[in-house]
Amino acid sequence: xxxxxxxxxxxxxxxxxxxxxxxxxxxxxxxxxxxxxxxxxxxxxxxxxxxxxxxxxxxxxxxxxxxxxx
Amino acid sequence: xxxxxxxxxxxxxxxxxxxxxxxxxxxxxxxxxxxxxxxxxxxxxxxxxxxxxxxxxxxxxxxxxxxxxxxxxxxxxxxxxxxxxxxxxxxxxxxxxxxxxxxxxxxxxxxxxxxxxxxxxxxxxxxxxxxxxxxxxxxxxxxxxxxxxxxxxxxxxxxxxxxxxxxxxxxxxxxxxxxxxxxxxxxxxxxxxxxxxxxxxxxxxxxxxxxxxxxxxxxxxxxxxxxxxxxxxxxxxxxxxxxxxxxxxxxxxxxxxxxxxxxxxxxxxxxxxxxxxxxxxxxxxxxxxxxxxxxxxxxxxxxxxxxxxxxxxxxxxxxxxxxxxxxxxxxxxxxxxxxxxxxxxxxxxxxxxxxxxxxxx
Lengths: 70, 361
What we know:
Chain A has about 70 residues and is mainly α. Chain A has helices at about 1-20, 40-50.
């Protein structure tokens, strides 16, 4: 697991360094359906339900959630 | 009786809704009603309200939620109270977000939750930054929690747990249609982890009798979870998303989660969504279906079936439609839970129904 996390971090940093999507190229990324979460109220309620019925959790959030379109 | 909430749940439940974004949100108010009902005679009605208002470089958000629980489950019926129970949990949270820079947001939040035998106090701080011409969003959240439990029928019982955690997330634009997310979540909780209403049965050697012992778990639990998610626009109307999460802790519990989502834009500012989720976990090392016979119980013991091997599956259909200044979201979901080595009631089937209305300006 720790190796997987380290690999994922390295991959994320690599992607950060080489990808550029310009603002005028983000039309589809600005679709509200691309937001994470798309329906926060539902995701929140589902997580609440899972909390009392499953033995583990976490890492369910997303960074900015959006596309940086504004 | 603690039915609905733990500190870990509070953290998870708030992650989606309260992630500070590096831009002021629109003013909005929303109301939600959710009903959970399962074949274990457990019904939870959960009304909640959310509001947020922003001015210049400052925003305030408020949340209030109630869980009204009606249960006759084998989980919650104890030998001390072999009858149906009704309970209520009230939760309130507040957050303040400021933008010291056009690409940086800082949010401070606090939350309290109260049941007649369980209280939670939590605080968190989140810093969000947008980098590389807003191609990358990084967020770092730290949180501290305090849980206090008492027990109906036992005025001498006091259980307390202190915990904290760090969540680091990164969102990266991959191309014109694709966004990737990475989340790493580390948590530590120290104190009381059990339930005062559960007990472990230990049979006496060569005797037809048995004794009940209270649960005993390690005081400290350290957990690490990591998740990746990819979202992609497909054609002009579809969006697909896939995510995977791995979890491990020092109680030797491991789990894997996979989620697939599809969303489609419909005419008239409407959307339709479908979510499918699968979950699988092994058991904590000290969890046993049956405690070994003996005069004394094992040093570590629990009857919490959520710490044993289990699987779950969820399917949810979501519809959204704009009505003037309001947006209405309705969802119906089915959940199956299989406790693979539980002695009693190893399967649970549930239906969730949610209706939410949001007004924005």
